[in-house]
Amino acid sequence: MTDTVPAEAGTRTHTPLDDLRRRVSGRLHVPGDDSYVPASLAWVVNVPQHPLAVLEVRDADDVIAAVRWAVDHDVRVTAQPTGHGANGTLEGVLLLRTRALGGIEVDVQRRTATVGAGVKAGELAAALDGTGLTFLAGSNPDPTVVGMTITGGISWFGRAYGLGSDSIVSVELVDGLGRLRRLSATEDPELFWAVRGGGGDFGVILRMEVALHPAATIHGGQLMWPVERMREVLTTFRDVTESAPDALTLWFQAITFPPFPEVPEPLRGRSFTSVAVAHLGTREEAEQLLAPFRAVDGLVMDTLGDVPIGQLGTIANEPTDPMPGLQRSRLLDRLDDTTIEALTAVAGPGSGSPLSVVQVRHLGGAFTRTPEGAGSHGAVREPYSLFAVGVPAVPELVPVIQTVLGRISAAVAGATSGRTLLNFLEAGEDPSLWWDAATRARLGRAKELADPLRTIVSNRPTLVDDRPVRTTPSPVRC
Ligand SMILES: Cc1cc2nc3c(=O)[nH]c(=O)nc-3n(C[C@H](O)[C@H](O)[C@H](O)COP(=O)(O)OP(=O)(O)OC[C@H]3O[C@@H](n4cnc5c(N)ncnc54)[C@H](O)[C@@H]3O)c2cc1C
């Protein structure tokens, strides 16, 4: 990027960011503005982000103008709608906030929905209420459909319908040279393959069309016991999931609620163990499958009921407001007695675990299959995914939580395949925890097609060599 540019002798100087401001209509936040720090914050607020500037794009023209400006000034660009997946690699990068790219079109006949890049998962879910159809929604309504889906999309309904990324029908994006492109199975198929898993490395997505799937009735919610029941609940979870039909998805959880006044008194500051349930079917079918859990004594909460699609977020009831977080995730080949014992020792009764959630998601079913014309993400052969999160409310908690996350890794060391789902990689983790070398090499070739100057950066580590190709020094401050 060039340094400040004299306008006319004796007058103020113009910077490249002044040039950007002239080219776009959205709000630009630059260092020194009161709004810069709040605009730069990721949803995971403890991930430090120091972008060159933050642009709240107003429309597609703003995206095109911003990418072309970045090419002209040798700056890198990223789209980060909310920052649930932030990983702190934004030094000197122009950060695009895409929330204004709205719009939801549902075609019940064709079973598709087209969403703007700013549409949140909860907003699409609400738009599908009453249609008897669902998209491949995850646990939290706050991430965008685009952000969650392009790097996998691990849904409550994935055991029945597969990865969210394999349900993408078409994508409209602005590539790394500022060109508008439409991707589908027949239009730019190699790039279409790459985006469906490789995510935000190939351009800034404006709109995305996804397939919808039958969900006439969803029965779901949580069963919760005191944490003293953890071993028994986790063992029952293992036994039930070993023979569960693809219509049933269960997640095991050990949860510690914070001691905050807004948490209801019976839960405040206490630890529990729970099973979260999403069943594509009736109450009667679900209850039959869940009978072994009904035999576990001490149930303190039962929120099972029919769940309208617009209320999917109530199943896990995860926080939607920005918060600090440290996480660890590993894919598991099995959930044997040794692993159950080890996890119970780290997060169960008397452990004093500072983690908010230790979760084991049941995968299997359609996650293990590769549909015709699948994208780059790839099937998930492992039957379980472990996900643990701690909330460092004060900085002193960071080393404490990191130590216990290390113990969680050790607890599953004998059962993990060594892989981690792409959507759950932590900041700075090695991309080879998900990608194999051949897929990364092919993604690298797709990157050359879409973004030869490497103007676009994703905050998921995907490519073999994501360094800028230009030799000019790092962008100077504007
Ligand atoms: C508590 C918790 C629960 C979660 N549950 C699930 C779950 O159930 N299933 C699941 O699959 N994942 C889950 N995740 C992971 C989450 O889906 C990913 O982190 C996802 O990327 C977040 O989406 P976002 O909209 O917040 O994206 P951001 O974090 O804002 O962006 C993520 C990246 O996506 C890319 N991107 C986003 N928008 C665009 C665009 N318009 N154009 C190009 N690239 C773009 C960019 O590379 C960006 O850096 C969970 C995460 C947390 C913390």
Characterization of the model:
The chain has 478 residues and is of the alpha+beta class. Among the domains are: 104-214, Uridine Diphospho-n-acetylenolpyruvylglucosamine Reductase, domain 3 (2-Layer Sandwich), CATH 3.30.465; 218-426, Vanillyl-alcohol Oxidase, Chain A, domain 3 (3-Layer(aba) Sandwich). The chain is 26% helix and 23% strand. The protein has 13 helices and 21 strands. Strands 14, 15, 16, 17, 18, 19, 20 and 21 form an eight-stranded antiparallel sheet that branches. A five-stranded antiparallel sheet has the order 7-8-12-10-11. A four-stranded mixed sheet has the order 3-4-6-5. α1 packs antiparallel against α3 (60-73) and α7 packs across α13 (437-450). The chain is globular. The N and C termini lie close together (9 Å). Mean pLDDT is 92; it is low at 1-10 and 471-478. Flavin-adenine dinucleotide binds at residues 43, 78-86, 98, 117, 138-140, 143-144, 146-148, 151-154, 199-200, 204-205, 318, 423, 458-460.
